[in-house]
UniProtKB/TrEMBL annotation:
GO molecular function (one): biotin--[biotin carboxyl-carrier protein] ligase activity
Name of this chain's protein: biotin--[biotin carboxyl-carrier protein] ligase
GO terms under cellular component: cytoplasm
Residues annotated as domain BPL/LPL catalytic: 16-204
Chemical reaction(s) catalysed: biotin + L-lysyl-[protein] + ATP = N(6)-biotinyl-L-lysyl-[protein] + AMP + diphosphate + H(+)
EC identifiers of the protein: 6.3.4.15
Organism the protein comes from: Devosia subaequoris
Keywords, in A-Z order: ATP-binding, Biotin, Ligase, Nucleotide-binding
Class of this enzyme: ligase
Amino acid sequence: MASFTLGGKARDAGYRLAGFDTIGSTNSEALAAAAAGDPGGIWFTALQQTAGRGRRGREWHSPHGNLAASLLIVPDGSPDTIATLGFVAGVALNAGLSAILPGGMVRIGIDGADGADGRSRIALKWPNDVLADGAKLAGILLETTKAADGRQAVIVGIGVNVVAAPQGVPYPATSLRTLGVERSAEDVFEALSDAWVDAFSLWNDGQGVGAVLARWRGAAAGIGAPVAISQDGVTRRGIFETIDSSGRLIIRDDDGARHPITAGDVHFGATASARS
């Protein structure tokens, strides 16, 4: 059975928790709570999801023992500002994993100089994934809905492959166990809940977006390297230059022109360099 607990910072900040062993979807549970009038500040967690989902309606496979966590909040800010909460979640995940994983596994410096071997390092992938050794370890999904009082509620959904990676997915995936790290989903969540408090405080109702994005860039995978962005059957290739002040990926093509990307599937390495 699940034994989730909030970290000390999260408890002190007034967050609440509803933990489950198995659930259909923690995001769906959070959406239902918003519709029922919950004021926000509550985490829904589970060791297994049977109907999880990711970006663009894709299934999110969650074997038992992995972490599914969704936070319901009702923040202030414009829709564009609220969209940057995905970067807040990425910063929180990076910090939470850093708190519980062996030294050298989590990327801290923008050039990755902190890593021992240049490979066994966790890094953030635009727009909403966490990679380990280039494979997906965790994902983030933001959903919005109207709260009972008419304000915009946000669900920050986070899934972490703790004991197993999903099979049959069209991308490399890994888990903490595969990386040789034996920590429980409850351990990961406790660290994440505290790291969220710090990252959300930095965001500061959108006034600290710049500081959040700077921290995200410092943990990012692929900046300065070839990248390919696929969207609606069209692929654009170039150099991943940076993330701009709105959180858009900036790609520089062979002619030196810079293109802002707001959405798409990102590919690094040989896939990014291949030409059709």
